[in-house]
Structures are given as C-alpha cells and as structure tokens.
Amino acid sequence: MSFIELWHSGAPLYQAGLIGVAAFGAAAFVLLFFVSAPYGRHHRPGWGPAISARWGWVVMEAPSFIGFAALIIVCNPAAWAWCVGALFLLHYLYRAFIFPFRMKGGGKPKPLLTVLLAVVFNCVNGAANGYDLSRVEDPVWGLVGLGVAVFALGVAINHHSDAVLLSLRGPGETGYKIPHGGLYRLVSAPNYLGEIIQWTGFAIAAATPAAVLFAVFTVCNLMPRAFSHHQWYLDQFSDYPKGRKRLIPWLW
Hints:
With 252 residues, this protein is mainly alpha-helical. The protein has helices spanning 3-9, 12-31, 53-75, 79-97, 99-102, 112-133, 141-167, 190-206, 209-236, and strands at 50-52, 109-111. The chain has one domain. It has a two-stranded antiparallel sheet.
C-alpha cells in the first residue's frame, strides 16, 4: 500500500491517535519555547508530585517498547518489517531499561505530570508505528537501505553525545559542567540532533504515516528544548563558547 492508502485504510482509533500526536506536537513546539520542560537542570517547584528521574524514564519510555512489540507481534508482518522494527525496539529497549540505570543524578525529581503525558504519547506512538509497519507489504528497498544508514548515523551521534555528558561527573559530583568534544564543538544539544536524525532515518525506511509523524513530532519536541538548553548554558557559564549553535551546526 502507498503512504496515502495506509492512512485511509487505517482503523479509526489509529487515525484518531495520529491526529492526537500531531496536535500534541504542534502544542509542544509553541509552548516549550516559552516554558522550559521541568526536568534535569530545568527542574523547578510548582509542577505537582514528582518521582525520581530514573524511574520516571522507565515508566514513560517502556510503553513505546511494549506497545510497538505487542502490535507487531499480533499483526505478524513480513520479515523486512521485523528488521526495520528492530531499530525501534532496540532504541526503546535501551532508553527504557538501560539508560535510566546509567544516568547520573537519577535520584533527582521528575514531575509526575510530565511522566504521565509521555506515557500517553508513547502508548499511542508505539502502537501506531507497530500497526503501520506491519501493513506495508511492498517496501521500497532503496529507501529502506538509506533510512537504516541515516538511523545508524543518528544513533552514533546520540550515544556519543550521551557518553560525553555521562563522563562529565566524577563519583559523588552533582554539578554541571560545559561539555566538549564531538558535535559539542558545534552545538549545545547534539544528543537531540542525533535523535532527530535517527527518527528521520526510521521514517525514510518505514515510509508510513506514523513513522513520518513521529519524526516531525521529534523535531517539534526537541527544537525548543535545545533552545532552552543553549540559553541555560549561556546564563550559567560566562566562558561558554560563543560560536556554538543550539541544534543545527553553523545555522541555529
């Protein structure tokens, strides 16, 4: 089926879910430029009950893994879809069950409200992507190969950037430092850039409405967060490199 046919042939619940994702992404893009998401360095009181950041990550990321796996197992797609789907599953296996236990400062508070919003999004997004991918019978192999390569590039950028951040704190340290090395030489949020690139790659490989919308949502969600991160660095460190951009090397 073509991209348009996938949308029109989808179940009403699937279509409603994607419309909700689009609305959520548009709202996040606007609001997050004015209100920094209250997590990590941007945490502040006034957002209600909180849980530890470590368990917040597990609770909010696990539904993507579970929802995608459940739909793709039930629908039992072609072998190629299992291979592309493995990209999604491996990412969320790491994000939900490995990264939270590697992060430093995992005991810091994370507002329960933001966790619950993420749970709702990830339930819909994971299920919609698994459902969509399982219905594609005739992939464009050139796009699959290109998408997998782009995804791998994004993963490499994302993981290297996370490794730089994890290396900044020694045992018992809790403060923040200026990261250096890799794409931190060019932008303040290369981890976000890597995530945008990888989900763009997934969208190219899958070529489904859910995957494309997820890539667009990722941009809408992470661009304003990169803006907030960059401004925070400038406010906190007088020696912060002035030539660094926010998210896109040499441009923004």
